[in-house]
Amino acid sequence: MRYVQTTTAAVRRTGIVIAAICCAGAFASSEPELVKNGDFSSTTLTNWAFSRKDSANVSGVITSGVYVVTRATDAAEDDTNTWNVQFSHTGISLEKGKSYTVSFQAKADSSFEMEVNVGMNRDPWSSYSGYQKYTVKNTWDTLSFEFTMTDTSDNAARLVFDMGRMRTAGTISLDNISMKAVSTGATGELVRNGDFSSSSVTSWTLNLQKGAAATRSIVDGQLVVDITTFMFTDSIAERYYIQLQQTGIKLQKGLEYEIKFHAKSDSIYQIMVYLGQNKDPWGNYSGWGFSPMVSPEWDTTYSTAFIMDSADDVGARLVFDLGDPMGEGPRKVYFDNISVKAIGGADVERNRIAQPAATAGLRAIFRGRNLEIEGVSALVSAELFNASGKAVAAFGAIHPGDGTASFAVSRTLAKGMYLVRVTEKTDRNSVKLTTCRVMNR
Question: How many Å apart are CA 123 and CA 287, to the nearest integer?
């Protein structure tokens, strides 16, 4: 496994960033439509079924090209199950290993939470997609989600809209319901919309736990995660409490894969990136060691490579754990050009691993007026950046003694977190760039 950070000016960006949740429609796809009459242009409800617990007070009908559910009276106090009002489409054919996008439009007289899922049309009625929850409001929203069929193929699955949490009298309207397989390209790229050329966030989900608060949006061709709250309920704040992920990554045993991306943040802090299982026990295929420091500059390409030693997984997930509270408060994190590709077989990586390890255990510490960098072995220079990304010091090249380079700091530095960018010149043609974090107390 290797961890690399390389400098490139080509990824620097400028522009105004606006944070919002984007609920745009799904990607354009050449795949066939799996939903029949999802725009309700016909009054014949082919493959559609409507069921309700209180048949006297709840009804569903196509009206002017829209499917309208009407609740004539408020729900009874004990009528709490979301599936008590259910609209479903059956006869959907799903293939193991394929990814699918579901999109639809919805509105309601009174705001309520609706659940949508794709699953079995037979006992035990298991969900293939997971239960997606949406707040339906009194204006039209275009909503969507994506999932990968990791179970055995099913040629008779169903798409379900559970609306039983609409508690008050009024109407719910649905339109332009669509479900398609996600088109795959011929470039070998396993990440969907990793360059964010589409404004849809369908392929990227944001998991929040323990009181964390954040939103995601795509603005100016970049994915923006706006983190507003790090107030966790536990005594220990874990990085996975704020988690950006894409599922449905197809990995084959024995192949070498490379993860690459560009990132920056309002303030310097550490993230964790990995490829792993999308189900219990949430195993990690790429390892836990890839934890790069991101800064306010677009000048770094982050990458790591690993061998898939586990069995094939058609539904793995790419994860960015963003819940490190050491970054000193709310911030926005920006991503671009996220990529996962197979780059070779197992023998290629094992040969690399057999070579001497390079610069393990990099660590920086302030000792009085000196900045000491441990774990270096070649000619070393360094730059020091504050939490806002401003360069505050630069240190010329020196040869380390006993694996430690010691630089004299000529100015008084404020207390707080700093990023150290370390450059090692191992020979005339080889330069290694790494970063680490240091606290000035």
Answer: 38
Q: Is the pTM of this model over 0.85?
A: no
What are 305's two structure tokens? 């490579």
Which residue has tokens 């008084």? 412
Place of tokens 């790494």: 434
If you write DSSP's letter for every residue of 394-429 in order, what string do you get?
EEEEE--BTTEEEEE--S---SEEEEEEEEEEEETT
The domains of the chain, with CATH numbers, are 2-21+186-354 (2.60.120.260), 48-181 (2.60.120.260), 363-440 (2.60.40.1220)
377 Cβ partners below 8 Å, 6+ apart? 359, 400, 403, 424
Closest among 246, 262, 319 to 288, alpha carbons compared: 319
Q: Is the dihedral of CA 342, 345, 351, 353 positive or negative?
A: positive
**Calpha distance 348→256 (Å, rounded):** 8
First-residue to last-residue Cα distance in the chain:
34
Chain-centroid distance, C-alpha 110: 31
Per-residue pLDDT reduced to its tens digit, 99-139: 888 999 999 999 999 999 999 999 999 999 889 889 999 99
What is the b/e burial string over 269-308, where b = at least 16 CB atoms within 10 angstroms of the residue's CB?
bbbbbbbbbbeeeeebbbeeebebbbbbbbbbbbbbbbbb
**Contacts (Cβ under 8 Å, ≥6 apart) of 223:** 196, 201, 204, 216, 217, 244, 334, 335, 336, 338
Distances from the Cα of 407 to the Cα of 35, 117, 367, 434, 437, angstroms: 66, 58, 10, 17, 16
| Widest distance between CA atoms in the chain | 84
**Residue 408 to residue 43: CA distance in whole angstroms:** 79
Tell me the pLDDT tens digit for each residue of 247-289: 888 898 888 899 999 999 988 888 889 999 988 888 899 887 7
In Å, how far are 79, 152, 199, 303 from 195, measured between CA atoms? 45, 31, 10, 15
